[in-house]
Amino acid sequence: MSRAGFRRRLGSWIYDVLIAFAVYMVAGAIAFLLFNLLIKFGLISMQNFEHPIDLQRSSILYSVLIYGRNIAWVSFFFVFFWAKSGQTLGMKAWRLRVQNQDGTRISKITGIKRLLPTLLGLGNLTVIFDRKNKLSLQDRLTDTEVVVLSLEANKGRL
Which PANTHER family match (predicted)? Predict the structure, then answer.
């Protein structure tokens, strides 16, 4: 299988960004619901604020917990699908799969290691300058590759 070029990766990235926003929003709604329940049951004091969002915004701790939880869910989304099938939903649509350079599925640890150098997709810009190997920053740092699948190989479940 050949390695994926920049345009195909960009198309997949656009799909996955939309899904990541949806995951972030659902995680945020659940986090804010839990935050409100903790306030309602008296486990968190309103501290003279009129609305829970005012309390959350005034506290670095609550903000880090809520937003960090949301980012953790988005990260979990990517790592789960990369480790399970090598494909996120966007990658499936563009017939891409991330794998170790020997063709095996990546582990969850490798998926986590891919997250930071991905830099919200900016790590893929290195593919533009590496036309021969078509390796992104995250591919180089984790000894992985993103390959283009045939129609037959792309069939099946995530």
Answer: PROLINE-RICH ANTIGEN HOMOLOG-RELATED (PTHR36115), RDD DOMAIN-CONTAINING PROTEIN (PTHR36115:SF10)
- Side-chain-side CA neighbours of residue 102 (13 Å): 2
Q: How many domains does the chain have?
A: 1
Measured CA angle at 57 (ends 45, 22), to 5 deg = 110
The per-residue pLDDT for range 94-142, each reduced to its tens digit, is: 999 999 999 999 999 999 999 989 888 899 999 999 999 999 999 999 9
Asked if 139 and 146 count as a contact pair (C-beta separation under 8 A), the reply is yes
114 Cβ contact list (under 8 Å, min separation 6): 78, 82, 98, 106, 138, 141, 142, 144
Note the pTM of the prediction, 2 decimals.
0.89
**Cβ count near 62 (within 10 Å):** 17
